[in-house]
Design brief:
- It is a single chain.
- The chain is α+β, with helices and mostly antiparallel strands.
- The chain contains ten helices and eleven strands.
- The chain folds into three domains: 88 residues; 107 residues; 235 residues, Gamma Fibrinogen, chain A, domain 1 (Gamma Fibrinogen, Chain A, domain 1).
- Strands 1, 2, 3, 4, 5, 6, 7, 8, 9, 10 and 11 form an eleven-stranded antiparallel sheet that branches.
- It starts with a helix and ends with a helix.
- Bound molecules: 2-acetamido-2-deoxy-beta-D-glucopyranose (7 copies).
Length: 507
Amino acid sequence: MINYRDFRVLWLLVAVSASSSSADYEYTPVEDPLQSVWDRLDNLSQEIFKVFQEKLENQFQQLQREMNEKLESVKSKVEVKTSAINNNIMNNLGHVDNKMAEINRTITSWMQNYYDGHVRNDLDEARRKIEEHVDVKISALENKFVGNINILMNLLAGNASRSSGSLLPSDATVPAGSSALVEQRISNTVTTAVTSLESNLRDQLTHISNVVTSSHSIVDTINTHVSKINDKLSSGDGETGTGTHSCLNDSIAIELISTLEKARETPGFLPRDCSDHHWQQPEAPTGVFQIYPTMDSKAPISAFCEMGDENAKETGGWTVILRRRNTTFGLTNFNRTWAEYRQGFGIPGEGEWWFGLGALHALTYRQPYEVRFLMHDIERGYFHASYSNFRVEDETRNYRLIVNGFTGNVSQDALSTKHHGSPFSTFDRDNDQLSSVNCAVSNSGGWWFNSCYYTTLTAPFPTSANRDAKTIRWLNDNNLWLVLDDVVLMARPAGYSARFNAHLHGE
Ligand SMILES: *[C@@H]1O[C@H](CO)[C@@H](O)[C@H](O)[C@H]1NC(C)=O
Ligand SMILES: *[C@@H]1O[C@H](CO)[C@@H](O)[C@H](O)[C@H]1NC(C)=O
Ligand SMILES: *[C@@H]1O[C@H](CO)[C@@H](O)[C@H](O)[C@H]1NC(C)=O
Ligand SMILES: *[C@@H]1O[C@H](CO)[C@@H](O)[C@H](O)[C@H]1NC(C)=O
Ligand SMILES: *[C@@H]1O[C@H](CO)[C@@H](O)[C@H](O)[C@H]1NC(C)=O
Ligand SMILES: *[C@@H]1O[C@H](CO)[C@@H](O)[C@H](O)[C@H]1NC(C)=O
Ligand SMILES: *[C@@H]1O[C@H](CO)[C@@H](O)[C@H](O)[C@H]1NC(C)=O
């Protein structure tokens, strides 16, 4: 394409060379015959240029607008993402902090109680015994001294009397002048008594020092575990919903369990649950025991303990969490408030009772737990269901249920299928998945309702064989409900029976 401007430049060059004959090379403008054309073209060019420029400007502005819009949208997306990530991190940090503070509280209070309640008592007791012992020895020595001094005086006075209980052979008539021998004997006796006293004291002190050392080593081990847990938590995957004991990897969990078991054998250790009682006294009969789920000596609770078969003690160690049955104690109302389900209600061992979500959380967070349900259907007899992993989260997460590892002879794993991961609900605290209805109100009992349930073991008793009524039920084969009139829910540390057997047979 030919540019019209080139023609103009060409013409100017021709014009300049035409006038170059002038000596001083003065430029004489030459009339350009095409000036008007150039002017028009110039004008035209400006118009074209203007149009072109406008077009270009429009194009450019359009592009800029689009780019800005795109940038805006990317920016807002990034902002949303960033704040979500931040929230997530803050949440996780919050959980980790709570968990650390809880572990810290538990261990601090346990150590406090251990020292206050146990070590100090032991020392006081030992001191009392030593003092008593020393008193007895000293008064015996005093008696002997008095007796011997009398004899000595008598001897010196030429009075060879007999004195039963004296250091002298009872029949011997001590000749005058043998007072040196008597002194020797007295001195020997005193030396022997003092030596025996000393060795006795040494034994006592060794024992006390052993007790103190062993408690130190347990505390050290626990501290090590806490710092491991701490490391694990800060490395990020503190939260899981998968059901394994959160924040503990297998090897740490195993070590922790074995430390807790050792602690169990320390004199004065507070039993946390029925398995601790069972471990210490396997022969103890099934019944009510005091336990300290939070390891706080000022917070004991009564629990009903299932201690196992006479001939298979490893079947025991269970803390009964829930009991439903119709007895002469009368029926217990299970339509209760959040606070009551947290605290527990009913009298363990008598009629019906609920253990309490607070204590259940304290137990199942310290180590992995297993549970067993024993149920009686009004027409079909007995059933059982067991879960090798059971955990109840804390109140800030509404005591969410973590459960898996089903075995049993009900034909449907109704609990983990429907209730795993569900928070607890009561008539005054609706945490279920239905927005229209509070499942706890429509079923009148507290439970880990979802929308709403496949199991509801705190509902009212059946008054007929109607399997569709809202009574205590467990969803079974072909979506037929088991209707129950007797229920036991019990819990103990996971894998307890194997560890108990190893312990019983000397590891
Ligand atoms: C070119 O434009 C100028 C002013 O913009 C005008 O005075 C002139 O007459 C125009 N020339 C032609 C040839 O149209
Ligand atoms: C645990 O508690 C003690 C005292 O109660 C405190 O000094 C310590 O910093 C706490 N540790 C953590 C990790 O919270
Ligand atoms: C000799 O000993 C007897 C019995 O201990 C006592 O009754 C008696 O008074 C003593 N005699 C003298 C001289 O001290
Ligand atoms: C658990 O942690 C220990 C060290 O803290 C590590 O050696 C082990 O491999 C871990 N186990 C699993 C299953 O992650
Ligand atoms: C509980 O047992 C009593 C006495 O056997 C009986 O009268 C009552 O109907 C039972 N209640 C329920 C809800 O089964
Ligand atoms: C389920 O197991 C229990 C023992 O726990 C047994 O008594 C019962 O007969 C079994 N029920 C069925 C339906 O197999
Ligand atoms: C459960 O208790 C609440 C509060 O007392 C009451 O409003 C509700 O009617 C009760 N539900 C049943 C089924 O009794």
